[in-house]
Specification:
alpha/beta
C-alpha cells in the first residue's frame, strides 16, 4: 500500500517527514510541482486543475491514499478531489486554529499562510468553528516559500523576511503562531527565535501524519480479506520522489531538508506536464 503526497514544491516534505517517522514501513510517492511553485499566489481554479492532474498521476503510480501536503491545494481543491475521485481516501491540511485558540492565554493567535489559503473556505470555516472568542490575526509572507525552495534556511535575508512577517502578529499580542504553509516548518527554528520565548509555534504536520495513520488503518480493515496486505510489514519503506523541475537540485534539497539516511531507499525521478496531464519522464 503506497501513500501519495503532493505539494507545489518541497514544502510537503515537512508532512512526508512526519508520515515516515510515524509509519516507517510504508511506501510513499511524492510529487513536487516545482514548475508551478508557489501555488499560494495562483488562482484557486488553476490550483484545482493542477491538483487533479497530480492526483491522477499518483493513482496511476500506485498510490492508494493521497495526501494534499499543501495548505493552498487543500483549501482550493480538496472538496473537488473527493468528489472527482470518490473511491480514493484523501487527507488534507487544515490550519491548526483549534489547538492554538484552545491554548492561547492572550486571546490572540497569528496565522502565517499564503493568500490562496486565506481565500479558501477551509480557513474561514476553521476560524468560525474553532476560533471562538479568540482574535485570529492573519499574515501573508511573500518570498518565504521561495526562500525555502532555494535552500536559504538560515540566511540573513530570510531572517529579515521572517522578522518583517512576524512584526504585525507580535504587535497584535499573539502568543501562538500557526504555520499555515507546509514550507514554513523548515524555518521553524528561525521563526521561534524571532518571535521569542513567549510565543508558541504550532505546526499541524504531526497531526496530519496521525490522520494518515488512522486512514491507513481504516483501509486495512476494509481490505482485511487480502491477508497479504493485512497488518504492517516489518521493513523499511521505499520512497519515490517526482519533480516537475530539475531533478539534481531537488534531490540535494530533499536530502538536506529531511535528513535521509541509508534506511530510506530513495528514488528521485522527473515528471512533466502535457496539458492537464502529468507524466513521468527521463531524468535530467
Amino acid at each position: 500500500m503506497s501513500i501519495g503526497l503532493f505539494d507545489s514544491g518541497v514544502g510537503g516534505l515537512s508532512v512526508w517527514r512526519e508520515v515516515v517517522r510515524l509509519l516507517p514501513g510504508e511506501d510513499t510517492i511524492y510529487v513536487a510541482d516545482q514548475a508551478h511553485v508557489p501555488y499560494g499566489t495562483r488562482q484557486l481554479s488553476e490550483v484545482r486543475r493542477l491538483s487533479e492532474g497530480i492526483t491522477r498521476f499518483l493513482l496511476s503510480e500506485g498510490a492508494e491514499i493521497v495526501v494534499a501536503a499543501c495548505n493552498t491545494a487543500s483549501a482550493a481543491a480538496l472538496h473537488q478531489l473527493r468528489a472527482t475521485f470518490p473511491e480514493t481516501r484523501f487527507v488534507g491540511m487544515e490550519p491548526a486554529v483549534k489547538p492554538a485558540a484552545a491554548q492561547s492565554e492572550s486571546g490572540v493567535i497569528g496565522v502565517l499562510a499564503t493568500p490562496a489559503t486565506f481565500q479558501g473556505n477551509l480557513f474561514t470555516s476553521s476560524v468560525e468553528r474553532y476560533g471562538g472568542d479568540t482574535s485570529v490575526v492573519t499574515q501573508v509572507c511573500p518570498g518565504l516559500v521561495e526562500a525555502v525552495e532555494s535552500g536559504m534556511l538560515e540566511s540573513a535575508e530570510t531572517r529579515d523576511l521572517v522578522r518583517e512577517c512576524l512584526a504585525p502578529l507580535i504587535a497584535a499580542g499573539a502568543d501562538h503562531l500557526v504555520l499555515g504553509c507546509t514550507h514554513y516548518p523548515f524555518v521553524r527554528r528561525m521563526i521561534e527565535e524571532v518571535a521569542g520565548s513567549g510565543v508558541t509555534v504550532v505546526d499541524p504536520s504531526p497531526a496530519v501524519a496521525r490522520q494518515v495513520e488512522r486512514v491507513m488503518d481504516e483501509v486495512r480493515l476494509i481490505d482485511e480479506a487480502g491477508a497479504g496486505d493485512g497488518g504492517r510489514e516489518e521493513r523499511d519503506g521505499q520512497h519515490v520522489f517526482f519533480t516537475t523541475g530539475a531533478t539534481a537540485p531537488f534531490a540535494a534539497l530533499v536530502e538536506r531538508l529531511v535528513g535521509l539516511t541509508g534506511r530510506e531507499r530513495v528514488d528521485v525521478r522527473a515528471a512533466r506536464w502535457r496539458g492537464d496531464r502529468l507524466e513521468a519522464r527521463r531524468a535530467d
